[in-house]
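does this look right to u?? pyridoxal-5'-phosphate version
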Amino acid sequence: MDHFLYHDGTLHAEQVALSDIAAAVGTPFYCYSTATLERHFRVFDEALGELAHTICFAVKANSNVAVIATLARLGAGADIVSEGELRRALAAGVPPQKIVFSGVGKTREEMAFALTTGIGQFNVESAEELEALSCVAVETGVSAPIALRVNPDVDAKTHAKIATGKSENKFGVPMARAAETYAMAAALPGIEVVGIDVHIGSQLTELAPFEAAFNRVADLTRSLRAAGHRIERLDLGGGLGIPYTRSNDAPPLPFDYGAMIERTVGDLDAHIVIEPGRLIAGNAGVLVSSVIYHKQGEGRSFLILDAAMNDLVRPAMYDAWHDIVPVIEPEPGIETLPVDIVGPVCETGDTFAKGREMPPLRPGELVAFRSAGAYGAVMASEYNTRPLIPEVIVNGNRFEVIRARPTYAEMIGRDRIPDWLAQEPAEPQPAT
Ligand SMILES: *Cc1c(COP(=O)(O)O)cnc(C)c1O
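got this back:
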């Protein structure tokens, strides 16, 4: 459920017409809905019911400080994967003890910074990282609460680029090595074992892989406790998928996911941490773009938009489907025609949809990409020297720009001409 609906023939974010935002900020832009973010957070919170739990929003899905702050107000923690994300979470007011630090390649500098801020948990992904963290903790004089990320070797049945729980993936410590790695952790100075962490992938559309992984975590919890380790927290990662189309079969509901958590690890009396990103932010955002041309090709027609793969890379990167709808509601029964929906970037990969049935759209008309709130703005680049597009958040009948579009001067002004080019005037080249 989201709050992007047609009212009086125009697509709105809550009570604000997307066309009004377009008139104010120009296209393309991202627009998020506060009510939808809040609703998704609460759905998770209720799904975990009576279990002691913390929902750590995976900041990499949408790292705008306003979005993190919206969730922090409701009690969310943060799952972060870099010092930059940690700084964003802190700037948004997330209490440090509710921050968990994930990722296979934390640097010593990042570890030291995180230790001094007092974050709640490091999700450690290797013996090598454990040793580095121990050294940094001793140097810093702050002990590091850790969970080892275990790799349960389950097939998440999702896109290969976002499956992380198979033994061939770079993530986590193999289950078979868990016992010895925990023993090593217990013996290292500056390391305090607090739990176990697992994350098997993103955009999962079935519960079974989660259930298999969590059962393995439950078994491991019992055997580690028997070996004398303090396993108080179970961090079960993120990854629950969202419906990207209105038609295809729906991914599991958070309620059923919560019941499955209760069933698999509920009797262990552990504090449950989950790290949802996409499910909270995905359907809480749209990307609004204008039609530049409707070009007739040989046997195909192309809708060329002002948004491109640099603004929303998911179709090019993951073959992802986004519903793309006109902002002005089409007349009922209007004839649609198949079009390829593309951006202006000089790559064939800059294609959002092929043969998509769309009502006729003229230059200047607006379209909205649904489900663009996660892995959208955060993955944007300035490829083709296209400025990063603005982000806007709506709350009821109000909206505010939460990241402005940079000017060309700001964008190009980051480059520097080196001294040797600045000093010597270019010599005219002799003709050959
Ligand atoms: C990406 C990621 C998440 C969030 O995944 P979603 O599919 O967005 O819920 C959570 N935890 C870790 C460790 C991640 O890498």
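The chain is about 30% helix and 25% strand. idk if thats expected tbh
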